[in-house]
Specification:
alpha+beta; Resuscitation-promoting factor rpfb fold; Barwin-like endoglucanases
Length: about 280
């Protein structure tokens, strides 16, 4: 080889190497930009939403069941899957798995005792007697509860059974309720007195119940039991017939508190001196 040929070979060698490298680089770019293939088939991207996370897998065909298997997701007997397990894989498919669990749950709940007021002729008018003290009962309830992804989705009552019967508070009140004449007429009162009357709202206690356990509403009055017996029927001037079924720390002596449905009505009534008649059968 002549000197000229030797120099030319040295100059051309780097150029040829760059050409070869450029050819390989171009092929690598083309391979990177093409879709992923599995066994010569283009793979589809599939997302699986399960247990609070999203899993991504690539599938070259198959169905939803195969995708779950590839992702390592196992289904329980009650678990729900959408789309169906037999549905074919499609590009960018979203598979949703819901964990479902159904169990029978047994729980106990109290049966709250109530208060019953019963008139009787065996006691003198205006006299009250607690014949039976209250005692809450107990019942057992059986439910079928279904959870979906950790949250209660359905609750069905299957049955209920009383374990301990409830005992209501039973108050006997002497005499029987007597309605006043609708027009004119007269009062057959055993006792008539002047009293200081004020108004109080039904929900002043927060429970809406009186000392005797009755619902606080118009027609209920609070009294001093030493003056007017609890359970007695009374007639209050300007208010009407009422039942003495409540007490109060400020109700002492010849004072009477009249129940009204709202604060506004109670405030509007104010404070008055009225005639109160204790009714007799």
């Amino acid at each position: 080889m002549s000197r000229f040929q030797h120099v030319a070979a040295k100059l051309l060698l780097p150029v040829c190497a760059l050409c070869l490298l450029g050819l390989d680089f171009g092929r690598a770019q083309d391979a990177g930009s093409s879709p992923a293939k599995q066994g010569g088939t283009v793979a589809s991207s599939v997302n699986i939403e399960v247990d609070g996370q999203v899993l991504a897998v690539h599938m070259a065909g198959g169905d939803v069941a195969e995708a779950l298997k590839v992702a390592g997701v196992e289904l329980g007997e009650e678990d729900e899957c959408s789309p169906a397990l037999s549905e074919a894989i499609a590009p960018n498919m979203m598979i949703t798995v819901r964990r479902v669990c159904t169990r029978t749950v047994v729980q106990q709940e109290p049966i709250r005792a109530r208060t019953r007021v019963v008139p009787t002729r065996r006691l003198r008018a205006g006299i009250t007697y607690i014949k039976q003290h209250p005692e809450d009962g107990l019942k057992e309830l059986t439910y079928r509860v279904t959870w979906r992804d950790g949250k209660v989705a359905a609750r069905e009552l299957l049955g209920a059974q009383v374990i301990r019967p409830v005992k209501d508070k039973l108050i006997l009140v002497g005499g029987e309720s007597q309605k006043l004449p609708s027009r004119g007429g007269y009062f057959t009162g055993r006792r008539v007195m002047k009293m200081v009357a004020t108004g109080y709202p039904a929900m002043v206690t927060g429970t809406g119940r009186t000392y005797l356990g009755l619902k606080a509403e118009r027609g209920i009055v609070a009294v001093d039991p030493r003056v007017i017996p609890l359970g007695a029927r009374v007639h209050v001037e300007g208010y009407g017939e009422a039942l003495a079924a409540d007490i109060g720390s400020a109700i002492k002596g010849n004072r009477i508190d009249l129940c009204f449905p709202t604060h506004r009505e109670a405030s509007r009534y104010g404070r008055k001196v009225v005639t109160v008649r204790i009714l007799t059968p």
